[in-house]
Design brief:
Structural class: mainly alpha
Number of helices: 11
Largest sheet: none
Distance between the termini: 11 Å
Helix content: over 70%
Number of domains: 3
Radius of gyration: 25 Å
């Protein structure tokens, strides 16, 4: 029994995490789309506010890439945290649950390992959402133009300079090949995960998959520290000696996710902007991104997208922890029944 219990717990953790990952990522992705779009939008003078209304398909742009990354991340999240907790247990009292600095350290280790898995897919997701916003806005502008063209003409003559013929041949481009590809994809943004990966390779190379790595690591570590510290502390208060009920796990997951948003939103804004396709022309590094955002757009811009992120993280956190606890309790119950039958 002692040999099979750890394997059963490990398996239940992986199953629960994986099932919860795909489910919660898909149903909450429209909030991810709105959050990312708001964070990428620069609130400068004479610039229109972010357009919240798009075609239904646009709200799921980047969902495929994020699902892959989240699946890798959450399938190892709980097992990594459990292993870190075991490693950091007090040697003088190994049966006692960890707390304080040991609990924070376990959350930090978990967040660091998660970030290594998710960084490339976060970049792909951000690029797909950015392209979807561009395509959607362009489509809406074309529709508005067509409506204006269908209206009765006012009789105003076209500008004569627009009708002047040209007699020279365009000179051969001496632009950098990658910049030429960048200009091409400005006219023809990618719309699926495969063409997006191709676009990123042709415009910025492998480096495009690791943009914003440092803020992503800090955000992921911050997420895990806040989430697991809050969750574990509340779990120990509510049910210290027996498995937690699923609805309690859901509620604690939502509450811990709210704490995550409140404390890590500025890092998330910087992370998203450093993953933009235009980062190379706007920001020197993450600190410069913070400085320019604060000076040009104000302090409130560092909390852009907090509302959709709160819905997204709250929902995903509640579903993830609730479903994890449900499957974990189910498999522990099955294991208990097996042990009784063997006895």
């Amino acid at each position: 029994m002692s040999d099979t219990k750890p394997n059963s717990a490990l398996y239940s953790n992986m199953v629960a995490s994986s099932v919860a990952a795909v489910f919660q990522t898909t149903i909450s992705h429209p909030f991810e789309f709105l959050k990312t779009g708001q964070q990428l939008h620069r609130s400068l003078p004479n610039v229109e506010s972010f357009n919240m209304f798009h075609h239904v398909k646009s709200y799921f742009a980047g969902c495929s890439a994020l699902n892959i990354g989240i699946l890798l991340k959450t399938s190892t999240r709980f097992t990594t945290f459990d292993k870190a907790c075991e490693m950091l247990k007090d040697p003088e009292n190994p049966e006692a649950p960890i707390s304080g600095l040991r609990l924070i350290a376990a959350g930090s280790i978990t967040g660091f390992m998660e970030s290594l898995l998710i960084i490339p897919f976060e970049n792909i997701k951000t690029r797909m959402i950015e392209n979807a916003v561009i395509l959607s806005n362009r489509f809406q502008e074309e529709q508005q133009t067509k409506q204006l063209e269908q209206q009765p003409k006012s009789g105003v003559q076209k500008n004569a300079t627009q009708e002047r013929p040209t007699f020279h041949k365009p000179s051969k481009s001496n632009l950098n090949p990658r910049y030429e590809k960048f200009l091409y994809y400005e006219k023809h943004p990618s719309s699926n995960i495969f063409s997006t990966v191709k676009e990123m390779m042709q415009t910025r190379g492998f480096a495009s998959f690791f943009q914003g790595s440092m803020p992503t690591i800090f955000r992921q570590m911050g997420n895990s520290v806040v989430r697991f510290t809050t969750y574990t502390a509340l779990k120990q208060m509510i049910s210290p000696d027996k498995p937690l009920k699923e609805y309690y796990a859901f509620g604690i997951g939502v509450f811990s996710s709210c704490a995550v948003v409140a404390l890590t939103q500025p890092i998330d804004v910087v992370k998203t902007r450093m993953q933009s396709k235009y980062t190379w022309s706007l920001y020197k590094n993450s600190l410069n991104c913070v400085y320019r955002t604060f000076i040009e757009e104000g302090l409130a811009s560092l909390w852009k997208g907090w509302v959709p992120r709160l819905f997204k993280v709250g929902l995903s956190g509640g579903v993830s922890f609730g479903m994890y606890q449900y499957v974990d309790n189910l498999m522990l119950s099955i294991e208990h029944q097996r042990s009784l039958s063997h006895d």
